[in-house]
Amino acid sequence: MSPTHLPSPLHRLDMDRIIDDRRTRIIVCCGSGGVGKTTAAAAIGLRAAERGRQACVLTVDPARRLAQSMGLTSLDNTPRQVDGVDTASGGSLHAMMLDMKRTFDEIVEAHADPDRAAQILANPFYQSLSSSFAGTQEYMAMEKLGQLRHADEWDLIVVDTPPSRSALDFLDAPQRLGRFLDGRLIRVLTGPAKAGMSYMKVLNAGFAMMTGALTKILGAQVLKDAQTFVTALDTMFGGFRERAEWTYRLLQAPGTAFLVVAAPEPDALREASYFVERLDAERMPLAGLVLNRMHASAASRLSAARSLAAAETLEMHDKPNESAGPRYSIAVAALRMHAERMQLGKRERRLAEHFTSAHPAIPVAEVIAQPEDVHDLRGLRVIGTMLSQQGS
Amino acid sequence: MTTRDTDWDGVRLHVVTGKGGTGKTTVAAALALALASAGRKVLLIEVEGRQGIARLFDCPPLPYAERKVAIGLGAQGAGQGGDVYALAVDPEGALLDYLEMFYNLRRTGKALTRLGVVDFATTIAPGLSDVLVTGKATEAARRRVDRRGDSHVYHAVVMDAPPTGRISRFLDVSTEVSGLAKVGPIRTHADTVARVIRSPQTAVHFVTTLEEMPVQETLDGLADLQERTGGAIRPGGIFINMARPAMLDRDDLAAAASGSLDAAELALGLKAAGIGENHGLAADLMAELKEHAQQVALQDREREELLTSGRPLYELPMIPDGIDLASLYQLAAALREQGAA
């Protein structure tokens, strides 16, 4: 489809300036589920590689065909070179899919002696925690990002955040784990092991009530497993906390650019608004908003109302019984379809304007909806071009 | 009241899942409206703390309490609809509920909450918090008007559940908990919840759009549910959301896709409608027709894919102006017409 005139928001996002700036080392694509984060991240990584960057895309949950097109057929937790990339400018593209459990296992192995590590890995609480989706995926994505950045083999890492229930989980997860490890419950659970009897006496009444209640809800064996796990985890706690803080500071650093991705839907844009405000509060560097899957028309000079009126006029003319005369059914279909498209585009525009009027300083890039899903490098290039050719 | 057969007679707990962005909450709400026919009470439950139901029904944020949010869709010849109640379940409220209901331990529960037990459950053992949340839904589905009576408080419970990627694990509570607890009260509770979820009283519906990724996820989700639970959890219907109807007949669609549609005919039509003077308009509209034909073809392919699952399909139209309360009733009527409720 030909480039279409879109009424301009206050600022256009200049994607090429961001990816061409060698100081940009990390681009984080975030947003609620189903808005096209993975596709955006892959498209940005590819464009950066073809403009000369040594890029690595870290993705969490790619669509099967998109993963295949990037050569991500196995989940082996290491970046693989992507074939078919134009390397004329000296760039390259690697991509990897996150293996949450393996990433977690590696942290445990790195921070505990072999015996203790084996003990933790076998604990049922650890197994539940390391393979579940709630929070762990976010935490591990950040951990992997930290590792890739630390390895310093790539000069640009593009990360696609997990499909969280809420876009905000991604920032909260490391801190939630930290808060939990730091919390009172942990002290109660680890109390007998590390505090000794004098400490226990002070806590005694409360502790008895607590363990009594926990035993009642969970059963004695569960409580014991939890205690063992937490005690073991406690020894690695310093390492955990340090890593989480390092990654957090990395995200705040000037070399990082956050892109909030949203579809022109009320829920997705509401999440995007929260995210923008949250990034600001956390002093995280926001580069802009990507509005994905916008509907536009090359015939926007014909309004929805006029198009619909024209269709109705033709329907009055079109008498099925008259064998002679022209057939208007194609024109009627075209006009009705165009009216619907204009109506949809207008609604999306209105939703986008709600966002831009609440956040006027934020640069916006728009990506026009494709008639088919993107599942090859050619499709990613089209998206990359749209992300970069704003307002031209 | 007229009784009529629907595809899900006997199902008391409708679990609605779907990929993010497919309109899972909208479909769950429409299903609740459709099920709440004459005099029937239906409970719509939200579990992810997003307050999506409150926004759809345009009411203040839902507390952890069952509140009436709408009247059900009236049936023809059977007068007004019943009532739709809504409830936002969070793990903390569900834990307090559980402690009170089974152990009469509300105050202890509050102390536990202050100590971070809920953080504990949601952080290190999400299986435990899932069992509390699903436990609330199964409790509502089984709740009787009085202890001895056999009539239920709710004719049906509709749960706006976690997304497709997480649904099997979320529902497979007894396996998730048995990894942690071989015996004990929480295990017993999990087994009770699992009995309801694994009974014919529960069905898991999948919401999708006719696009590649959501369709793939739906099929993967169905397969995962079958594999993980050995078919013990009953798959429900596939609800196709935001479908766009074809505007041309089959021959014209094929012609539009291949670019052989008669441009002169279109131009003539535009002229007859008084907009023929506009330069290049016919060509632009022709390009839009081509895209439309491609989209219809893609939709047809994806629909074929979904049919391979053998599940009943229901189709809901795209509402170009956005979802409001009126359009929810429109979608509810479409669901009822197709036998989903």
Instruction: Give the structural class of chain A.
Output: alpha/beta
Percent of residues of chain B in helical segments? 40-55%
Radius of gyration of chain B equals 23 Å
Report the top-level CATH class of the largest domain in chain B: Alpha Beta
Return the average pLDDT of chain A rounded to an integer. 82
Low-confidence stretches of chain B: none
Give me the CATH superfamily of the largest domain in chain A: P-loop containing nucleotide triphosphate hydrolases
Explain this structure to me?
The complex is a heterodimer of chains A (392) and B (341). The N terminus of chain A is likely disordered. Chain A folds into 2 domains: 252 residues, P-loop containing nucleotide triphosphate hydrolases (Rossmann fold, 3-Layer(aba) Sandwich); 37 residues. Chain A is built from 15 helices and 8 strands. Helices cover 57% and strands 11% of the residues of chain A. The longest helix of chain A is centred in the middle third of the chain and has 33 residues. With 392 residues, chain A is of the alpha/beta class. In chain A, α10 packs across α11. With 341 residues, chain B is of the alpha/beta class. Chain B folds into 2 domains: 252 residues, Rossmann fold; 44 residues, no CATH class. Helices cover 50% and strands 14% of the residues of chain B. Chain B is built from 14 helices and 8 strands. An 8-stranded mixed sheet of chain B has the order 3-4-2-5-1-6-7-8, with helices on both faces. In chain B, α10 packs parallel to α13. Chain B is elongated. The two termini of chain B are 15 Å apart. Chains A and B meet through α6, α8, α9, α10 and α11 of A and α3, α4, α5, α6 and α7 of B.
Topology diagram in text:
The complex is a heterodimer of chains A (392) and B (341).
Chain A: H1 15-20, E1 26-30, H2 37-50, E2 54-59, H3 64-69, E3 80-81, E4 92-97, H4 100-111, H5 114-122, H6 124-131, H7 136-151, E5 156-160, H8 169-182, H9 184-194, H10 196-218, H11 220-252, E6 256-262, H12 266-281, E7 286-294, H13 304-317, H14 329-358, E8 364-368, H15 377-388
Parallel strand pairs in A: 1-5, 1-6, 2-4, 2-5, 6-7, 7-8
Antiparallel strand pairs in A: 3-4
Chain B: E1 13-18, H1 24-35, E2 41-46, H2 52-56, E3 67-71, E4 83-88, H3 91-103, H4 106-115, H5 117-124, H6 126-142, E5 156-160, H7 164-171, H8 173-178, H9 185-197, E6 202-208, H10 212-229, E7 235-243, H11 250-258, H12 263-272, H13 281-307, E8 313-317, H14 325-337
Parallel strand pairs in B: 1-5, 1-6, 2-4, 2-5, 6-7, 7-8
Antiparallel strand pairs in B: 3-4
Helix pairs in contact in B: 1-14, 3-4, 3-6, 5-6, 6-9, 7-10, 10-13, 11-13, 12-13
